[in-house]
Amino acid sequence: GNGGKFEGDLLVDQACMSRSCSTDRVLIVADGRNEKIYFAWQTDEQTIKTRPELSSWPETARREFEKWQE
Predict the structure, then answer these.
(1) How far, in Å, CA of 44 to CA of 36, rounded?
(2) pLDDT digits (tens, 9 = 90+) for 5-30
(3) What is the residue-wise DSSP string for 25-56?
(4) CA distance 21 to 32
């Protein structure tokens, strides 16, 4: 990861496999106040998965997901 950053109350970090950052990567959003963690990852198949479902992520976390997707 890059050491993470705070967006409001959320800690946001991301990482990727060397030489394949466009496909093998992960986004982690930690909400310490509400004791929740949100994950998104992309594999070689170009499929992005989220846990929990993206629709349950708080708005700030969804914005970070959208930036990460670009």
Answers:
(1) 27
(2) 998 889 999 998 877 777 789 999 99
(3) EEEEEEETTTTEEEEEEE-TT--EEEES-GGG
(4) 27
What's the sign of the alpha-carbon dihedral 29, 48, 50, 41?
negative
**What is the DSSP code (8-state) at residue 52?**
S
**Residue with more model confidence, 52 or 1:** 52
Residues in Cβ contact with 43 at an 8 Å cutoff, skipping those fewer than 6 apart: 23, 24, 49
Amino acid at 23: T
Phi, psi at residue 40, to the nearest 5°? -140, 140
Q: Which two tokens stand for residue 61?
A: 């976390």
